Amino acid sequence: MSPESTGQNEHHIRVYRRRFRAWRGNRPFWAGLFTMAGGLPIAYFPYADLHLGNMTLAMSTTAGAGSLIIGVLLITLGFTMWFHHIVRVFAGIAAILLALISLPVANIGGFVIGFLLSLVGGALSVSWAPAAPQRADEATGGEQAGPAKGLPYEERPEGELQGAAAVPRQHGAGLDTAAEAEGGRHRAG
Q1: How far apart are CA 186 and CA 165, in angstroms?
Q2: What's the number of CA atoms in the CB half-sphere (13 Å) around residue 81?
Q3: Is residue 176's pLDDT more than 90?
Q4: 69 and 98 in contact (C-beta within 8 Å)?
Q5: Is-above-0.70 flag for pTM?
Q6: Where is this region: Disordered (predicted)?
Q7: Distance CA 23, CA 4 (A)
Q8: Rounded to whole angstroms, how far apart are CA atoms 72 and 42?
Q9: What angle do CA 40, 123, 66 make, to 5 degrees?
Q10: Which end of the chain is more exposed for a tag (fewer CB within 10 A), N or C?
């Protein structure tokens, strides 16, 4: 490599880190992580044995298969939030419902740990929204060439509105005064 090629000298860990940050920013990453982390204790505790010296304490219940199914579904929903984020609202609601169902079925929701993690993950998934697309001047870091073509209607200067966009903006009903609501008639006294 020559010293003139600056792009080639970048360390590969930085490249992977930057790619991961971009990937993570385009999906409900933390929602999926919390949901998967909540599914693990729900699925694990009914099949775990705790050894205290010579005594074995088994956490298994008659609903062990149900808790395994709930845990696996929560882990699957977490991966769905990551890799198919278009159905994030469905996955979030399903995670919340499965977390609630895990309370009576799976050892009080994986001893409340799995319940809380799944509940937070589902709520984060339902509330997550993709970022607004950047305007051309923000993406390039400079000024936009020509008139404000990328600006929404409300932010354009009045001289640049043409055609159907030149129709004046109408105010919502919440902004009308009582006189305007009655057709502009004013009452005397």
Answers
A1: 32
A2: 35
A3: no
A4: no
A5: no
A6: 135-189
A7: 30
A8: 9
A9: 35
A10: C
